[in-house]
DNA sequence: AACCAGGAGAGAG
DNA sequence: CTCTCTCATGGT
């Protein structure tokens, strides 16, 4: 894909989303909804410091307590409930690793059934935490798609399949592409 | 001090 | 399906 080569030569490798565990990635995906990553880092640090960064700990924590720990990343009332539901899903699947052994489409449905997890968050979790071959479409991707005329439709699924069609079927490329788009739009706001 | 940030849900038209 | 409102904190 031309856009990928252009962004990569412009910005270099992003090596996005360093985390201690796939669960931490999933938590970050929920917390970052419509909020800058800087806010999310605070909440993640707090959760780790309080030894709350595990499905078991979050699943059994008091809702009000969990809310106070993630307050810094906004929308904390809904995000706390979402994190508890997500944790329960992982636990009932036998663990985070076991959950991601399932089929992509099936896992996607399970994630989308949780209130507070929409298409982009579900796909980000599948790609960055689970290593599944699926491309997340955020607002930046929509804008670039529109500006460069990459896809005719603005529908989420259409754009997703459009990018998946043009990109090499490689999880690392998907991860880089999504990160490159976000970094490009952050650095060149006027272009995006 | 208004504006936006790595969205999602609910409701209306 | 598209548009609009709400959710909430923290940085410019």
Topology at a glance:
Layout: H1 2-11, H2 22-31, H3 37-49, H4 55-60, H5 63-69, H6 76-92, H7 96-99, H8 104-112, H9 119-129, H10 139-147, H11 156-166, H12 171-187
The chain binds a DNA duplex (13 and 12 nucleotides) through residues 16, 28-30, 32-40, 42, 71-78, 82, 115-121, 124, 136, 138-140, 154-155, 178-179, 181-183, 185-186.
Overview of the molecule:
This protein has 192 residues and is mainly α. It folds into two domains: 2-15 and 136-191, no CATH class; 22-129, Hypothetical protein, domain 2 (Endonuclease III, domain 1, Orthogonal Bundle), CATH 1.10.340.30. 65% of the residues lie in helices and 0% in strands. It is built from twelve helices and no strands. α2 (22-31) packs antiparallel against α9 (119-129) and α8 (104-112) packs across α9 (119-129). The protein is globular. The mean pLDDT is 96. It binds a DNA duplex (13 and 12 nucleotides) through residues 16, 28-30, 32-40, 42, 71-78, 82, 115-121, 124, 136, 138-140, 154-155, 178-179, 181-183, 185-186.
């Amino acid at each position: 894909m031309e856009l990928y080569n252009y962004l990569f030569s412009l910005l270099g490798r992003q090596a996005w989303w360093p985390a201690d565990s796939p669960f931490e990635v999933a938590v970050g995906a929920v917390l970052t909804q419509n909020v800058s990553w800087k806010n999310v880092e605070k909440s993640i640090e707090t959760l780790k410091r309080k030894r709350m960064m595990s499905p078991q700990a979050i699943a059994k924590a008091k809702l009000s307590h969990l809310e106070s720990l993630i307050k810094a990343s906004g929308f904390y009332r809904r995000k706390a409930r979402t994190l508890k539901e997500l944790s329960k899903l992982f636990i009932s699947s036998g663990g985070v690793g076991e959950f991601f052994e399932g089929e992509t489409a099936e896992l996607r449905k399970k994630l989308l059934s949780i209130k507070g997890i929409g298409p982009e968050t579900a796909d980000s979790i599948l790609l960055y935490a689970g290593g599944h071959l699926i491309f997340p479409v955020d607002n930046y991707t929509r804008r670039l798609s529109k500006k460069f005329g990459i896809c005719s439709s603005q529908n989420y699924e259409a754009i997703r399949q459009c990018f998946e069609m043009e990109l090499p079927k490689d999880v690392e490329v998907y991860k880089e592409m999504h990160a490159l788009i976000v970094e490009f739009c952050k650095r060149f706001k006027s272009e995006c």
